[in-house]
Amino acid sequence: METRYGLQPTLNVRIEESVVMFLRICGHNEVQRDVGLRFGRTQETVNRKFFEVLRATEQELRQIPEKLQMDRRYWPYFSVFVGAIDEVHNVLESTR
Prior knowledge:
Elements (H helix, E strand, L loop, with lengths): L1 H4 L9 H13 L4 H8 L3 H20 L3 H5 L4 H21 L1
Helix pairs in contact: 2-3, 2-4, 3-4, 4-6
């Protein structure tokens, strides 16, 4: 993650922890407050690390394999995901 996406560790949060917090929020639908409690981090830290990982991997997340796009069984789920990523991107752009 450091060499490919440019993520940097901080004094208190390793890259691996940042990625795991990101995955818990995205993959397990946990709210940032609960992730902060689980990892002993403030909500501000969890929020900052979530957006650092999202910004670093955003282009990769947008690249959906053609096989998934063409398969009617999977595309409805991924099309919603792309829309969610686009909306987060719009929020990121408006805060810069």
